[in-house]
TrEMBL record:
InterPro entries attached to this UniProt entry: Znf_SWIM
Molecular functions (GO terms): zinc ion binding
Assigned keywords, A-Z: Metal-binding, Zinc, Zinc-finger
All copies of domain SWIM-type, residue ranges: 103-138
Keyword rRNA processing: no
Coiled coil: none
Superkingdom of source: Bacteria
Protein name: Putative Zn finger protein
């Protein structure tokens, strides 16, 4: 996997959650979060409708859970219309992201409506495990932009292209059964 995060517009949405541009002083936890993601310490990342779950192996294992509101029916219908206009079999490249945005669909979860929890005892919000999960999810989106749509409530049949092989469960079997 690439060491770079947020190489597409889809991934950048989530990288921005970890690294908001409005922050004047860089979060000292960020380099550590990136390092956790880069060293594949974010395991069992699973993205389904409205929910992302992951296990982050830091000094011990921590369970991260992020919920994102799904689009209501009018928004879903709008998204389907935009996607139907895309070339059949085409990739979900940055221009599709732009087209959705222009139609008024926000792919990036609004911090106000998102909930994110981690079972660690850190009082920092977000903790380094949450940050690492954002970064890792950004990388997953760079590879599979469809996950951004599935997260918002679209089904596999709504998205053009490889509709039969959407990796909803991104469980990494090798690490899932590994020792802590
Ligand atoms: Zn944590």
């Amino acid at each position: 996997m690439s060491d770079e995060f947020g190489t597409t517009a889809w991934g950048r949405d989530w990288l921005r959650l970890a690294e908001p541009t409005s922050i004047i002083r860089p979060d000292p936890a960020l380099p550590r979060a990136r390092s956790l993601a880069r060293n594949d310490r974010v395991h069992d990342l699973d993205a389904t409708t409205g929910l992302i779950e992951a296990t982050v192996r830091d000094r011990s294992r921590h369970r991260v859970r992020i919920t994102v509101p799904i689009w209501d029916e009018p928004l879903l219908a709008k998204a389907r219309t935009v996607l139907a206009d895309q070339p059949v079999g085409g990739d979900l490249n940055d221009s599709v992201h732009t087209a959705l945005k222009q139609a008024g669909l926000t792919l990036a979860p609004d911090p106000a409506t998102r909930t994110a929890t981690c079972d660690c005892t850190s009082r920092k919000d977000p903790c380094v495990h949450l940050l690492a999960t954002y970064v890792e999810f950004a990388r997953r989106l760079d590879e599979r932009p469809r996950l951004a749509l599935v997260l918002r409530g679209l089904t596999t049949s709504d998205t053009p292209g490889e509709i039969t092989r959407i990796p909803l469960g991104l469980v990494e079997v090798a690490t899932f059964y590994g020792t802590p």
